[in-house]
From TrEMBL:
Its cofactor is [4Fe-4S] cluster. Gene3D superfamilies: Aldolase class I. It comes from the Bacteria. This is Anaerobic ribonucleoside-triphosphate reductase activating protein. Residues 15-224 form the Radical SAM core domain.
Length: 226
């Protein structure tokens, strides 16, 4: 098996709600979103083997509460299931950051009881989904959303904002999709910040969407500045 992990962040207070965590960044992604700030991960190769990754996790036991599996797209890797399983066996909580393109693997991990929290990216409304992601994956996103709705774990849905890609009307339509699916949580929006190179080399967003542009909304919306 090829090395699955591109890099490791040994400590984070931001990536698992109210928990200390490390982040395992899986190499590669099946999407090519122009705003992606991890082009080196998306286009790169894995640097850490399964053995090296598990050795690192063992060294974090009793020091951290959680492991975040991110990327790239972690669910694209068969190793994702095994690493989550091993992390749970070591006593860690496990969070998945996913674009929702592999509902089969997310379902299998939920059935195995090896996921504790999921952050699901809602990339775009159906009409713009393929143009923004370069993948015809809207139906799979919806299937992943429905799978998470049926699971007894906390999860969040989030969208990255750039006004050249998504309008306030798009976000309102996406919020309505979530409302129609009876999504019970806040819908998180993340402002685009070009503090590093992106996959599509997007420039700064000089007309960012504001919360007042999105009201009234059928579900609670929160904008994360960082």
């Amino acid at each position: 098996m090829a090395n699955p992990i591109f890099s490791i962040t040994p400590f984070s207070l931001l990536d698992y709600p109210e928990k200390t965590a490390c982040i395992l960044w899986f190499a590669g992604c099946n999407m090519r979103c122009s705003y992606c700030y991890n082009p080196d991960i998306v286009l790169g190769k894995g640097r850490f083997s399964m053995e090296e990754t598990l050795t690192f996790l063992k060294s974090r036991k009793q020091l951290l509460q959680a492991v975040v599996l991110s990327g790239g797209e972690c669910s694209s890797h068969p190793a994702c299931h095994t690493i989550a399983q091993e992390a749970k066996a070591m006593g860690f909580l496990v969070k998945i950051d996913t674009n929702g393109s592999r509902p089969d693997r997310i379902h299998a991990m939920l059935e195995a009881g090896i996921i504790d929290y999921v952050a699901l990216d809602f990339k775009a409304p159906e009409a713009k989904y393929k143009a923004i992601t370069k993948l015809d994956g809207y139906s799979k996103f919806l299937k992943t959303l429905k799978t998470l709705q049926a699971a007894a774990i906390p999860f969040e849905v989030r969208t990255t904002l750039h006004s050249s890609l998504l309008t306030a009307a798009d976000i309102k339509a996406m919020a309505q999709v979530l409302a129609d699916e009876a999504y019970p949580h806040s819908y998180y929006l993340q402002q685009f910040f070009p503090d590093t190179s992106t996959l599509g080399e997007l420039e700064n967003d000089y007309r960012p969407i504001q919360l007042e542009d999105l009201l009234p909304s059928p579900i609670p919306i929160r904008i994360r500045e960082h």
